[in-house]
């Protein structure tokens, strides 16, 4: 019988629980190709729950610190890939958060290798899905905002991952991003031709528009007119996020009157009046609620209330919607529109 052919890109792996310690020993080799083969084998092994648990619980993660500073870009890239695979599981995310690797990992946001940077963003984005991870990454928000300013057109995947991480962090605490010129930087990003980038950027902006300072900046940085255009975008999630930012911003007086000048009432009403099938109705629920809440806030201004009094039939139709949340939002809008001093 012919002998099995050894894959030259992988190390031979010991049986059972000896495999992980053996491969981590190989990571100490001076030859970069040896380290790379060991990392490739570890990336294969980590798909087995028992081996992943062993790496996490027996202190092996800490041994990856030197590899994050390895002179070989392929080794740095593969190390970050291994961390990404580990952080695909909650136990791996918690282990990385309790380690000392985060500062070294963040240094690789400026790595010369695009593959390495991509893997770093995947790791950070995975961590940000946990509240504890988003909390730990808040200290990196100024650096992430700086990276966002420096993004090139060909770095679309990195940019989308970065924005997704910022969104998770900013939902937890929007102040670090606001303090790092988040609104004007994101306002510029809204003009990106990629729907994916627009989805992520508007999601971050929605989080930043919750504090009063964020609402004020949305007005001052002339972001509202861009958002009005995005309400007519063909991507439902972009429309929904843009409506969410407007809903937050029109709470303040400046936001109300700027939106009225930009014909917000007409644009929002058009979204409410679109014909919906059963499947589309479910998908558009959040958008409809955001539009109704934005119109309710606009009706608090006499000019907005005057415009909406002619649109009561549409609001009344929405007040009979099958969905109770939409009915409630529409009835609140009707009460404000029909209020008399």
Automatic annotation (TrEMBL):
Q: A Pfam family name for this chain?
A: Cnd1
Alphabetical list of InterPro entries matching this protein: ARM-like, ARM-type_fold, Armadillo, Cnd1_C, RSP14
The segment(s) forming the Condensin complex subunit 1 C-terminal domain are 56-168
The organism sits in which domain of life? Eukaryota
Q: Which PANTHER family match?
A: RADIAL SPOKE HEAD 14 HOMOLOG, RTDR1
Its name, as the record gives it, is Condensin complex subunit 1 C-terminal domain-containing protein
- Origin organism is Crenichthys baileyi (White River springfish)
